[in-house]
């Protein structure tokens, strides 16, 4: 109902205004509408005493505390729209649950905590560090064709199609192979159950050689290079490890090329080989005879080498024997006894 205006006439007592009855009727109907809107009405219900208008806004009177709904004057006209749905107003300092909300250009100061659907725990997202004043930092998420999962530093996860540029990888575990950028296998890993021995690769400073060494729990460890089928292991240039035997030293076990330098006739003991096909090369660059002795020569018990003589042996593991290689035993430099 629109507000009813009482006609008071043009001048006092000119007889053109509303009668007392009409005036009273308008007054009653206006009050009736106000009472209905404010919680009272013709039914005899008293007008509410819980809600009132005050200078600071609309006051809701409670049993103990009052709530005032107010506003701060803005720099321009402000429209606040309530959604077409039941719910609770969200305020800045109360702990509340928020559902089905879309946040645009939202600034979050402090930690972001995401609670799971069940349980009492939550995920806490924290920025570690201080952003310099006036310098924003962006965290960009890729455009995905399907759902995906974030990667965390202490959680076991499988990464697919990642390109790592200059990564620092500590103690990586490689599954089956290492591939080139075209997806072809470059290096295949063949793990051994309960392995305790391995390869150690070391680089080197200028004018020194990098090394590939056998290492592990075992005391004596070799390195095996296998070709496939009738293929061969091709070496660009070969040099053997060498040792010069000094006075009283006869240990030849860890080297291939042995140099002796006797100034008087001397005898040296050759240890048994440890690997089938093991090669031993002995050179006498001294001024006197050098005699090699072993209980496992295939041809005798001693080989005597004159000065500047060189002889070679190869180990046969099946019979535990050293065989003489490529030497004319009838010549003046080598004597077999």
Can you describe what's shown?
The structure is a single chain. Strand 1 and strand 2 (57-61) form a beta hairpin. Among the domains are: 1-58, no CATH class; 242-336, Jelly Rolls (Sandwich), CATH 2.60.120. It has 337 residues and is mainly β. The strands form six sheets. It has a five-stranded mixed beta sheet, with no helix packed on it. A four-stranded mixed beta sheet has the order 12-14-15-18, with no helix packed on it. It has a three-stranded antiparallel beta sheet with strand order 1-2-3, with no helix packed on it. It contains one helix and 18 strands.
What are its keywords?
337 residues, mainly beta, Jelly Rolls, 5-stranded mixed β-sheet, 4-stranded mixed β-sheet, 1 helix, 24% strand, rod-shaped
Q: In the CATH scheme, what's the topology name of the domain at 242-336? A: Jelly Rolls
Name of the CATH architecture of the domain at 242-336: Sandwich
Shape: rod-shaped
Summed up, the helix count is: 1
Strand content: 15-25%
Percent range for helical residues? Answer: under 10%
* Biggest sheet descriptor: 5 strands, mixed
The gyration radius over C-alpha positions equals 50 Å
Kindly provide the name of the CATH class of the domain at 242-336. Mainly Beta
Strand order of the largest sheet: 10-11-13-16-17
The count of strands amounts to 18
Classification by helices and strands: mainly beta
- Helix-strand pattern: HEEEEEEEEEEEEEEEEEE
